[in-house]
Write a structure and sequence with these properties.
Layout lengths: L1 E3 L14 E11 L3 H12 L4 E4 L16 E2 L11 H11 L6 H20 L14 E2 L9 E2 L5 H15 L4 E2 L2 E8 L4 E8 L5 E11 L21 H9 L3 E2 L4 E8 L17 H4 L3 E3 L24 H4 L9 H13 L9 E4 L5 H7 L1 H9 L9 E10 L2 E2 L13 E3 L16 H24 L8 H18 L7 H15 L6 H17 L12 H25 L21 E8 L2 E8 L5 H9 L10
Helix pairs in contact: 1-4, 1-11, 2-3, 2-16, 3-11, 5-15, 9-10, 13-14, 13-15, 14-15
Length: 618
């Protein structure tokens, strides 16, 4: 990495803002598990990288993945293996998954878990010392490894510790606004320092996008508001890469419902699937809430109606996330929900000691809010949680269609198909992150890359972006960015939520265009370190990805996985294909592509029909 002094702002136009210039062989944008694992692999192969993140080191969305990480270890169910893991992933993804993505992930995960264990990740253990595993929704066997209910946090701590041991350079509080691309190759990125506002030009021979997904496009979502705003997909799209399957957004069945007495905004925050994996039951509001909470201590859920018996009598609360989320939505639609359009989640039939041991973080969270999980049910509702869509890549390499631009993690599409199997998000980050690191290291060696250099046209593009950002800073209109963010999230919730139809999607596109027009009247305060400026940048990303979601959902005239069209309620064989989004001179263009087939080994596992039966938990 070769930092150079700030550039003289004088040029032909005389108005280029001052900027810092940084040269680095490989730039990794995003500091969660996927970016960290990629950088670790690069370092172990002798290739220097710089990891940049919007938040302090170790504070990434990975920490919010609580329940576990999948690997066919067979600690408790010896008959499990990687083929069945792959089969479950295909089944949950409704067979529009990328075959290479699925099988590479499932095959690698036992080794990746062993690696994390070796690096010090404190997995829960069985009595005989094996890594413990729990059930997660739609898994055929107990396959989800865990650290209580703080698995993502423990995993990122482990990866960050390893990265520090390898002395991998990291810059925090840096936000990328544009990739430098000529439509064929990427050369670096434009960014600003969120602490003091100065501009940064990164010159790089290779760029890896690991910047998260886009679930925060929605009003109720499980992320912090400043995360998962579509940065990664929007940056890739702006550089000329294709996006894939943006219509598939997973709504986790159990997000928190806000109580007006709580000081902090908890709306949509995840109540981990581990609560259901450990036996939690969903109840509607057919009886008053005070009767639907508490415990009989006899193994029967108190109060309310355990409605999943009607929707999924075999798998119950541990059916696929899309099935459970739609069941909750249907209960609410038919008048059996709470006043807040939710239902109740109850694990009070379990012993207090069991809950404290297996779900410590959830127990402590609700205890701090005045709720005792061992005695009371909690109110929950579906929340936008994960985006299965994203950048289109070759999973054997991580390559996009733009030379030297790679992507990994929730920024990409392919592993999960139409719906993500719980526990697979963390798995994908380390499995594919290692592969991307391997390929970038090989590509770096093959190219014999010298210090990166920036073509004149790319410097001109960067300086144009700096001027635009400087002008944005001084915007003196009447509309705060936060107001438009709220408007965008509300329209996505209303028009591209759990239940969709063509007319509503069309209306959503019209409303989105209206929001876009209002950006010409933004009101900022001249401070690039402010939340308002960050919101304005986020808004530019979110408008692009929201359009892609709406158009892709309109294009797919069927219901499949997390994409449910009330005007096309059936899954259709002719739609077993992917929807691609391409940036053209005339705007956003869509096309479809056939989906590959599973390998013979995985197809056999699919044909064997493995399936969880809920009674295993009783």
């Amino acid at each position: 990495m070769i930092p150079t002094p700030p550039t003289d702002p004088s040029d032909a136009d005389g108005d280029v803002p001052e900027y810092e210039e940084v040269r680095v062989p490989v730039l990794v944008i995003g500091a969660g598990a996927a970016g960290a694992r990629t950088a670790i692999e690069l370092a172990e192969r002798g290739v220097e990288s710089l990891v940049i993140g919007k938040r302090p080191h170790g504070d990434a969305h990975t920490t919010w993945a609580a329940g576990g990480i999948n690997a066919a270890l067979g600690s408790l169910d010896e008959e499990d293996d990687w083929r069945i893991h792959a089969a479950d992933t295909y089944d949950e993804g409704h067979f529009v998954n990328d075959p290479n993505a699925v099988e590479l992930t499932a095959k690698q995960m036992p080794d990746r878990i062993g690696e994390l264990d070796e690096w010090g990740m404190p997995f829960n253990r069985t009595e005989d010392g094996k890594i413990d595993q729990r059930y997660f929704g739609a898994q055929s066997f107990r396959r989800t490894c865990f650290v209580g209910d703080r698995t993502g946090e423990a995993m990122l701590e482990t990866l960050v510790s390893k990265a520090r041991e390898l002395e991998i350079p990291y810059r925090e509080n840096v936000m990328v606004t544009r990739l430098l691309s000529d439509g064929s190759r990427v050369y670096g990125a434009v960014a600003y320092d969120m602490e003091d506002g100065h501009f940064i030009l990164f010159e790089a021979n290779h760029v890896v996008l690991a910047a998260g997904g886009y679930s925060a496009l929605y009003d109720r979502h499980s992320s912090r508001d400043e995360e998962n705003n579509g940065d990664g997909p929007a940056l890739a799209y702006g550089a000329g890469a294709d996006l894939l399957d943006l219509e598939f957004v997973q709504f986790h069945p159990t997000g928190m419902v806000q109580d007006p007495d709580w000081d902090e905004n908890w709306s949509g925050r995840l109540v981990t699937e581990a609560v259901r994996g450990e036996g939690g039951r969903l109840l509607n509001a057919e009886v008053p809430a005070n009767e639907a909470s508490g415990s009989t201590g006899e193994g029967d859920s108190p109060g309310g109606e355990r409605f999943m018996e009607e929707y999924s009598p075999t798998q119950m609360e541990l059916d696929a996330r899309d099935v459970v989320a739609r069941a909750i939505a249907q209960e609410v639609r038919e008048g059996r929900g709470t006043e807040n359009d939710g239902v109740y989640l109850d694990i009070s039939h379990r012993e207090r000691e069991f809950i404290e041991e297996r779900l410590p973080k959830m127990y402590e969270r609700f205890q701090s809010l005045g709720i005792d999980l061992a005695e009371e049910a909690v109110e929950v509702a579906p929340t936008a949680h994960y985006s299965m869509g994203g950048v289109d890549i070759d999973f054997r390499t991580g390559k996009t269609r733009i030379e030297r631009l790679y992507a990994v993690g929730e920024t990409v599409a392919g592993v999960h198909g139409a719906n993500r199997l719980g526990g697979n998000s963390l798995a994908e980050t380390v499995a594919i992150g290692k592969l991307v690191g391997e390929h970038v290291a090989d590509a770096f060696a093959d190219a014999n890359d010298a210090d990166p250099s920036l073509p004149a046209g790319m410097r001109t593009l960067a300086e144009r972006e700096f001027r635009a950002l400087a002008e944005l800073t001084e915007s003196d209109g009447d509309t705060p960015p936060a107001e438009l963010l709220a408007e965008l999230r509300a329209l996505m919730e209303d028009h591209a939520g759990i239940l969709r139809d063509g007319e509503s999607l069309d209306d959503g596109l019209e409303k989105l265009a209206a929001v876009s027009e209002k950006t010409a009247d933004l009101c900022l305060d001249g401070d690039r370190t402010s939340r308002a400026f960050e919101d304005a940048v986020d808004l530019s990303f979110m408008l692009v990805v929201a359009e892609g979601v709406l158009r892709s959902a309109l294009r797919r005239t069927e219901s499949r996985g997390a994409h449910y069209r009330t005007d096309y309620p059936e899954k259709r064989d002719e739609w077993r294909k992917n929807v691609l989004v391409h940036r053209a001179d005339t705007g956003m263009e869509l096309r479809t592509r056939a989906v590959g087939l599973p390998s013979e080994a995985v197809q056999r596992a699919i044909d064997e029909g493995h399936e969880l039966e809920y009674h295993h938990l009783e």
